[in-house]
Design brief:
The complex is a heterodimer of chains A (192) and B (274).
Chain A lengths: L1 H13 L10 H6 L4 H33 L5 H23 L1 H7 L2 H5 L3 H12 L4 H32 L9 H16 L6
Helix pairs in contact in A: 1-8, 3-4, 3-7, 3-8, 4-5, 4-7, 7-8
Chain B lengths: L2 H26 L6 H9 L13 H9 L13 H11 L9 E5 L20 H6 L16 H5 L5 E3 L5 E3 L9 H5 L5 E5 L4 E3 L7 H7 L9 H5 L5 E3 L4 E3 L9 H5 L5 E3 L4 H7 L1
Antiparallel strand pairs in B: 1-4, 2-3, 5-8, 6-7
Helix pairs in contact in B: 2-3
Classes of the chains: A mainly alpha (192), B alpha+beta (274).
Chain lengths: 192, 274
């Protein structure tokens, strides 16, 4: 039990997928202009990354490893993630229309989110068991969502005060903020 | 088995399986979408110019069908098209006069002075940032063709004198050129407007005269001579009111710098408007 707890803390905060591993930076800048869209994107990623992580693990262990074609990992994982996102979108539109409308454009965007692919690869690289894969994928995605939500909150505040110098408005101040968040998260390095 | 064969077959099989699952899912979880949305979307121009305020033509089509937008909300569609959409959905459509872009500056290289030689990025927005542009007139066309690139409908091109030309038959009045121009020199006017003062300068007459041969010097002769009182001087610039102007042409001759002129749209545009 304890190692799972440690793994969750490590994946969420200490080795945060965005700020420490530098994956999925695009949505951190792109969809954090409002709090709602950040929450929507975060929720969609938590859902998709967990499913993609576990599905990719199963395919790696039952097909790629058995046939000795591990070198096709990148190709197959991307294929699986793209198909999975489409599948989730189709099912969600039917089963949960309000959720579908809330996530909206974010679902197809996740297809190209490198964080989802990154988590799937990390699971294989660090030789996780199935249970570990599930926990690690979930925790990493939650860490990603957290950063998104933090960033959206900060940006809304900065916009509201209107005290950002003109040349730094928009993306520049976001990148500076992301750098500072990264530094503060780096303070946790080496804890686990 | 050949390694390459294994690879091809495996990836192929996974792709096939994924495709099969998606196909079955699309059938199983089919959601009924109002077919009228697609029909309306097919009728709309499909340029996704965004002038209506919605995120593209499909989004507008959904809004029209659901009653959240009027049938003539598309700025680029002709009146006839709006009527057809209205007829299909069984809603009445008010008529809205078609508008076209016109270039409100005539200061070409020969007639308007420049303050310095600009060699930067070939984009008016960039040129405007360099101490307010190279034109001596801060209302004048910078002539780098940003509006031409912004036009989705191929209605603008750069003329030989370095000013953009409007092909009124292609112009849909979406207003993208006006929005992207740092000085908003392309402006939308109703197609029925007979005359316009093709200058945008609000500088006082003396200053205009020093830097441009074809600028409005706010002498007010046009205002005096107009029998319909259709010309007003707004902050040192003559403005023609399209509602009252009859196009009699008295002001054309009086204007010392000949900036008030008849609006000439191409023949196709007149036919379309009629």
């Amino acid at each position: 039990m304890q190692e799972y707890l440690l793994m969750i803390v490590a994946a969420m905060f200490i080795n945060n997928i965005v700020l420490i591993r530098f994956m999925g930076n695009c949505p951190v800048v792109g969809v954090t202009s409002s709090f709602e869209s950040a929450v929507g994107m975060g929720a969609a990623v938590v859902f998709v990354a967990t499913m993609a992580g576990t599905t990719c693990w199963i395919i790696q262990r039952t097909i790629l490893d058995v046939l000795g074609i591990e070198y096709l990992q990148t190709l197959v994982f991307i294929l699986v993630i793209a198909a999975l996102v489409q599948f989730v979108e189709i099912v969600m539109q039917k089963v949960a229309p309000p959720l579908y409308r809330a996530l909206g454009i974010f679902l197809p965007l996740i297809t190209t989110n490198c964080m989802v692919f990154g988590v799937a690869v990390l699971n294989i690289k660090e030789d996780h068991s199935f249970m570990e894969t599930l926990v690690f994928s979930l925790a990493s995605a939650v860490g990603f969502g957290l950063v998104l939500v933090f960033m959206a909150g900060l940006r809304e505040r900065m916009d509201a005060t209107g005290r950002v110098p003109r040349p730094l408005k928009g993306v520049p101040i976001t990148l500076i903020t992301a750098g500072m968040m990264g530094l503060s998260f780096a303070g946790l390095l080496g804890m686990v | 088995m050949e390694p390459v064969l294994t690879a091809v077959l495996t990836v192929g099989a996974i792709g096939m399986a994924a495709g099969l699952i998606l196909g079955v899912a699309a059938k199983l979880f089919y959601v009924h979408v109002d077919p009228r949305i697609n029909e309306v979307a097919d009728m709309l121009p499909g340029a996704n110019c965004g002038a209506c305020g919605f995120a593209g033509c499909t989004d507008l089509a959904a809004a029209i069908v659901q009653g959240n937008a009027p049938a003539n909300a598309c700025k680029a569609a002709s009146d006839a098209l709006a009527q057809r959409i209205g007829a299909m959905l069984g809603i009445s459509v008010g008529t809205l006069e078609r508008r076209v872009a016109q270039i409100f500056c005539q200061g070409d290289a020969a007639r308007a002075q420049r303050r310095f030689l600009y060699l930067g990025i070939r984009d008016c927005r960039a040129a405007e940032l360099v101490s307010g542009g190279d034109k001596a007139c801060r209302y004048g066309c910078l002539g780098l063709g940003t509006c031409v690139q912004a036009c989705y409908f191929d209605a603008l091109r750069m003329g030989p004198d370095g000013l953009p030309l409007v092909d009124a038959s292609r112009c849909t009045g979406c207003g993208n050129c006006q929005a992207i121009c740092p000085r908003h020199i392309p402006r939308l006017i109703p197609v029925s407007q007979k005359a316009a003062a093709f200058c945008g300068s609000h500088d006082p007459g003396k200053e205009v005269k020093e830097i441009c041969e074809v600028g409005c010097i706010a002498c007010g002769l046009c205002k005096k001579v107009c029998p319909e009182k259709a010309v007003e001087i707004d902050r040192f610039l003559a403005v023609v009111d399209p509602a009252t102007c009859t196009g009699c042409g008295l002001c054309f001759e009086k204007c010392p710098t000949h900036i008030i002129q008849a609006v000439v749209l191409s023949r196709e545009a007149e036919k379309k408007a009629a």
